[in-house]
Every structure is written in structure tokens, then in C-alpha cells.
Amino acid sequence: SMPSEMLMKILSYLDAVSLLCVACVNKRFYHLANDNGIWLKIYSSCFPPKRTIWKAKSVQTETVPLGCGPIQDRKPGYWKKEYILKQIAAVRTRVMQLVKPVDPYTGLPCKNKKAIKASGLSWIIVLKDKNGKEHVMEKPDLSFKDTSVTMFWCCASWPCLDILSTLKLFGVMPLLPDQSRAPSKNGPRRRSLIAEYNLSNLTESGVAVGADKLVQLFSVNPGLLVGLWKGKNEIAFVMASLHYHQLLERSTLGSANLQYAPPPNKPVLDDVDPEYGLHDYDLHLDMHSGSCTYLCGTFKSLFCRKDDIENGYLRLTVVSLKDNTKHVPLIGTVGLSWETEAFKGNVKDCYVMDVTLLDETRKPFWCFSAPVCMEVSSKASNLYDYMGHVYTTDYADSEGRVCVELVWLEETKEYFIVNLVLYISTEKVNNWCGTNY
């Protein structure tokens, strides 16, 4: 019942974020909070004026942004929109400056962590049940590595898995990032859909990765790991891995309903004999879990000939079984650590694999971060230098496959990678290189 003039006076003391929140109260508050006079004041105080208008009969001056014109000539909400667009553009410029420097080994930006902080970016998961009700899980624990970030959500009361239909992973950014304070989950934010997963038949459609005394792990592409309490159909925790190559784009440039689709690659002119196939590719490989890094290495000058094409895949041999000079050891005991409010554990022979494959121009060609496991192979080691159990790790998605063979040395208590092969889809190569393999 308060007069609009009094409400306008009160609203004129609010900051931009508070005004956007007030606008959600009802239609009347929405129209009052869109007032051009209030937003022009906020706009002018934030951005430098373009010109100064001198009043003839006063010593005072009035600073007005160039081209603003009389306030009444603008549609309601005009200066609010201008302010928001400029703020978003300023943050985007700041982030782009941070991601310009590139690591020569990974081909990825060096300052991803700083860029994420500057943008105010965070991540949430939204669990949707079969009745359409949504359960939002905020504030994951984050673990930053050279080429990926791992997010870990745990909660005392997860919805029952039997009633859940989907899980959506979103990147969330404040509409008006404030560098002086942490973003509030109650402030205006925008969501960008990163991935959507079907949980209806998780134990059947997901890949069983491993288990310990308390939990059983199931992996769903791309990069999602769900821990279930052993013997129960209840969620213990959720973990997601995102590779830096897709991280900022997918987390910021999509919409709440549609995932971001990157533009097609523009092939470069190749002066090498086409019979030679792929050449001068580099692989950066990370194997890790939490604070532990088991392997972080770069393999250069990978290539394949057209003879290496079979069943729709091109083969890139990274580590050969026959060349023991290139066999690589893993550091430490491999296992995926987890922790909730009441329990913690470690699932042996599980880890997160980050693959960054660069083409001959050092441009990221195939990148992913995903939880994987090591399985005992039925065959024994036939290598003279290694006498121990043989393990394999296999990963596959729509773009390619990774096959790793490891040998466990009982004497030194360590794994050695004795065979590592990448299989790249010919369809991906053709789309990327503009060729026809």
C-alpha cells in the first residue's frame, strides 16, 4: 500500500544485485526496479563518463554517458540491460586475458584456476525425480590438476535412487560478478548445461568401476562417477571430472536447457604425403586421484600411417610392449579416495585419467577427463624384465579409445605401463583434418 514515490526513493539506495532480487517479488516491484533513473545512476557510477555537460547557471557539473539522451526517451529497463551487458563483457574480457598464456606441454591455458575465480564460476548438480521435483546440490569440493578439475559432492540426505530419473551438471555464474566478495547462491545467476545423465537404470547402464567395504562405484560418460552404499540402492556421493579444454566454454556459453556446441575446426594446409597419415601429434597424460598424482607425462611426435587404420579407427602407439626403454612407472599405490560427513575410504585400482592429444599445430584435438579402473588380465607377463600380474585399463567414447596395459612389480611395489595405444575414430579425424581416411 506504500506509494510508488516512496518505494522508488527506497529502491534508489539499493545496489544492482539487490535491485535484481527485488524485481522478482511481484509485477509492481519488477516495474519499479526497472526504473531508468535508478539504473542510469548505477551505470554512471560504475563506468567512466563519455562527456561532461556544463550547466550554465550553476557551478556544478553533471556527467552523462555519451548518447544516453533524456531518460524518458528510453524504454523501461534499458539502462539495466546496458549495465548487465557491460558487466558481462568486462568479466569476459578479464577471463580472456587470463586464458591467453598457453602451457607448451599441454597446449592449454596456464591460468585456468585464476580465470575460474575471476568469473565467479561454480558448479551444481540437479537431481530430478520421476515426479518432476528437482533436488539441487551446491558447493562441491574442488581438486585442480594440470589439465582438469574434479568436483565432489557429498550430502547427508540424498534422494532415493529408485525415484530419480536424471542428473544434470551445470556451470553457474553470477549475473553480476563482484570481485570483492564471494558469489551468493541467493543472488541472480545464470546456468549453463554441461551434461545430462540418465539415472533410471544406473546399475545396469553404468560401468561398474570398483568397490570397497562401504561403497560401489559406477561410471557414466562423460566423466561422472556415482558412489552407492554397498548393499543399498542409495547414493553416497557424486564425482564429476571436467577437462580444462571444454571447462570454461561448456560452463559459461551454454543455456539452462542446451549444451554449448563448439564451432567446427578449420583444417590447415598439410604439405605431407597423404599416405603418411597423422603425424607429429603430442599426448599429455595425467593419472590422479584427489591430492595424489600417479603419472604426469608428455609423449611427443606420435604418428600413424594409413596402414594403421582398422575397423574405423586410426591407431597411435604411445608406449610399445617391445620397447622397454619407454615403459613408464606409476608413483604410489593407485586408488580413488572418497570421504563423506561420517565415512571415508579408498577404492583400489581406480583413478581419474586425463588425456590431452594435440595435433601437429599444437591445438587440442581429443581431450577428456574420466574415472577409470584397472582390471586383472587373464594373461601372464611374457616380458623378461617383468614378472608379475598384468592389468589393463580401457576407456571408450564416441571419438576414440584408450588401451593401457600395466605390469605389477612385487619387488618394488609399483606399476609399469608397458603398452599404451590410442584409437581415434576416422570420422573425428576426417571432420578435423578435412581428409577422407
UniProtKB/TrEMBL annotation:
PROSITE patterns: FBOX
Annotated gene: Fbxo15
CDD domains in alphabetical order: F-box_FBXO15
Name of a matching Pfam family: F-box-like
Signal peptide positions (record): 1-23
Stated name of the protein: FBX15 protein
Cellular compartments per GO CC: SCF ubiquitin ligase complex
F-box domain location: 1-42
Keywords (A to Z) from UniProt: Signal
